[in-house]
Amino acid sequence: MAIAAEVLDRGTVRENATKIVWTLAWPAVALNSLAVINNLLDTGFVGRLAPAAITAQGASLVVVFLLFQVAFALGTAATALVSRAFGADDHNEVRLATKECLCISLLLGIGLTAVCALLGVLVPHIMIPANNPEAMHLMTTYVVIYGLSLPAQHIIQVLAGSLRGVGDTKSPMWFSGLQIVLHMTFNFLLIFPTRKVLGVTVPGAGIGLAGAGCAFALSSWVSALVYMGYGRSTEFGSLWRLSKPTMEWLRRIVRIALPASIMGIVRTLAMGVFMFVLRFVPDASEALAAVRGGFTIESIMFMPGLGLSMAAAALVGQSLGMGKPDRAEKLGWVAGHYSALVVLCLSIPIFIFAPAIANLLVPSDPQIAREMATMMRFMCTTEFLFGYSMVMSGALQGAGDTVSPMWITIICLWGLRVPLAFILALPVGLGASGAWISMALTQGIAGLMGIWFFKRGGWKTVKV
Questions:
Q1: What is the pTM of this model?
Q2: pLDDT per position in the chain (464 positions), as tens?
Q3: Taking phi first (over 0 means left), then psi (-120 to 50 degrees means alpha), and beta for anything else, what does residue 2 get?
Q4: What is the DSSP secondary-structure string of 291-341?
Q5: C-alpha–C-alpha distance, residues 404 and 399, integer Å
Q6: How far apart are CA 292 and CA 103, in angstroms?
């Protein structure tokens, strides 16, 4: 990892915290910006299908996010373990941590494929209004196909987390770019039928939303295989031969990954209940359809913060491995402040141009676009505090403290967001707008809680 510093007259070295953070953060910010582009393009493709397909994909986010949380948690564990070992200059531990996390994640990914198929049959009847059977059928098909990508996603998250742990955020950026190009190419070929584009006949499978699911699964597997092959050129060594994980490593990984998984699952289940509430508001199908596009646009605001969160996780872990908790704290705060500032700068134009953006994403249904714009404007009001929330949580997790972010999530979502969404949307009668208000308020509270937990400093003594 490149470190910027100033040599002082006394012969000591003072690090430039801003340069340290951004040296590691900018590729992660670029990577997450690529993910935003991917989601925008994917939403744009599906947004040109029938309203039932848009509703089905929006409702499927509950299942998609739920099962992705396990992969993300194992990536978090990989970053915490690898960064601590890398900071301590223990390269054997770096290799062991990567391979143990990879083996466990691959086994879980395979098992969750079957779980995804089951959820794909059951969840549509819960999430989608009974008067929209076409959307239920499309959601089942999409979720079952999506499940085939889960082992690949687990590989990607662990290896990306390990690379961040050793200070390499550029390689995941390039691999993410490759995955996006493949994803959009497959979308173009699988979603729409054969047609003429600028006078040229373009072949197409014409399988609609199922094509979107296939495109994501295929691009995920290609990206995962590229990650595996790339491992040989890093200090991880060959990753193709994996052995049964040892109990010692299993305990270490679970101690970090379990609270992170619980946090993600709690967050996703809360979103599921939140969307279940939307099922009973006026224009329920339009509100559910608006969620996908609304979250996609929101990601434009928070993805830079997520990139800085990834940098903070690696830097805090490395600093603790060096035995420098004060350095870890300083870098965490610098990343947090920049996150809030960047997110605020992005929120302002999105708030102003929300209707135009929504109509661009969903040209086929003005009512969905109108609801999407309303959701975006509410989210913009507290997004800068969410920028703090992401970075502070990332810094805590990089230190190995995944318990504090878990409690922040439980309190803000289940203690506040879910009941508040129900009260405002239904008894008070604000409809979908009441739900959007609850989201905006609780993400602001999450930011304040993240600041408080990081400031307490208990994470400095966490053992991994």
A1: 0.77
A2: 433 433 333 333 467 888 989 988 888 888 777 777 777 778 778 878 888 888 888 788 878 888 888 888 899 899 999 999 999 889 899 999 999 999 999 999 999 999 999 999 998 888 888 888 899 999 999 999 999 999 999 999 999 999 989 988 889 889 988 998 899 899 989 998 888 777 788 888 889 899 999 999 999 999 999 999 998 888 888 888 877 778 888 899 988 988 988 888 888 788 788 888 888 988 888 888 888 778 878 888 888 888 899 889 989 999 999 999 999 999 999 999 999 999 999 999 999 999 999 988 888 788 888 999 999 999 999 999 999 999 999 999 999 999 999 999 999 999 999 999 999 999 998 999 999 999 999 999 999 999 999 999 999 988 87
A3: beta
A4: HHHHHHHHHHHHHHHHHHHHHHHHHHHHHHHTT-HHHHHHHHHHHHHHHHH
A5: 11
A6: 32
Cross-strand bridge partners of residue 259: none
Pairing mode, strands 5-7 and 200-205: unpaired
Tokens of 415: 């203690």
Residue written as tokens 């399988």?
207
